[in-house]
Amino acid sequence: MKGAERICFIxxxxxxxxxxxxxxxxxRIDADRVxxxxxxxxxxxxxxxxxxxxxIPEDRGRAVLxxxxxxxxxxxxxxxxxxxxxxDYFHKGQRIISVAAGISTEAVEKMIAAEIPVIRxxxxxxxxxxxxxxALCAGKWAKPADMEAARxxxxxxxxxxIVDEEAMDSxxxxxxxxxxxxxxxxxxxxxxxxxxGLSKEISRELTLQTLLGAAHMLMETREExxxxxxxxTSPGGTTMAGLEELKRRRFDEAIxxxxxxxxxxxxxxxxxxxxxxx
Length: 278
Ligand SMILES: NC(=O)C1=CN([C@@H]2O[C@H](COP(=O)(O)OP(=O)(O)OC[C@H]3O[C@@H](n4cnc5c(N)ncnc54)[C@H](O)[C@@H]3O)[C@@H](O)[C@H]2O)C=CC1
Ligand SMILES: O=C(O)[C@@H]1CCC=N1
What we know:
Layout: E1 7-10, H1 14-25, E2 34-37, H2 42-52, H3 60-66, E3 69-72, H4 79-85, E4 95-98, H5 105-112, E5 118-122, E6 132-138, H6 144-155, E7 158-162, H7 168-176, H8 178-195, H9 200-221, H10 225-232, H11 238-248, H12 251-274
Parallel strand pairs: 1-2, 1-3, 3-4, 4-5, 6-7
Antiparallel strand pairs: 5-6
Helix pairs in contact: 7-12, 8-9
Bound molecules: 1,4-dihydronicotinamide adenine dinucleotide (NAI) and (2S)-3,4-dihydro-2H-pyrrole-2-carboxylic acid.
The site of (2S)-3,4-dihydro-2H-pyrrole-2-carboxylic acid (A1CAB) has 4 residues, from helix 7.
């Protein structure tokens, strides 16, 4: 399968590009065996072709038909249109990987109305640099070999775990949306540094290196985050004063609410699709 797999991306947005960049960088796929198309923006496809060398098929039906793996990377509200449009071109010899948030494998299976292996995946945009945290789950027709093939693909762009489908809304809320929470925190830290008297450049540099260092400390020492936090926090010192302010403003509650709200939004996206709401 290595290198020889034919892949067709339906959807050419941020997520498709993040995956393409990561997969090609790691040589897990060959650009000339990858087809990409979207709904209408030709300029976008031309840019992807220039940047990554992928194919922009004139005959889209053929690209879908000939693909070993079809990666569905359209917004949840566009899943129905994208799948029904190509329903006659899907066949049992291929697998469909959907990255659409909230959309169940069952919903996809119903729309394609054939016994094709469907895999629901939730990567995140860090796949661009090979650092996605991806979770995968199997649809009704997906066999262990399909899951392994999907894991092989996604493990090239970060870590990839297989979970039960009921976990997917939580995964979406935590690691799918997660990079945005971190970026939001970085924005806030940078602004706070400036507010505290630093230049924008210095504040950014110190914030990013602090984030990188903390992430590596967590990964490399494998110590509990609470323990690492304790080591920063001298009794009566500056960190303690700062953390008290975060606690007073219920930082942990805010994070919990964000994840739980994103989880319920993932469910809503699936329900909206089933109700035919755009
Ligand atoms: N952006 C992210 O961090 C992540 C996104 N996702 C999921 O990935 C999917 C795509 O998200 P983005 O790339 O951010 O969206 P986007 O809006 O950047 O891209 C969507 C693409 O789908 C195309 N499209 C729409 N209808 C189509 C149709 N009928 N046929 C062919 N192409 C069609 C659009 O032209 C566009 O190229 C969503 O379902 C989202 O839930 C999953 C994980 C992370
Ligand atoms: O915001 C979204 O709906 C997508 C799913 C996870 C990350 N981005």
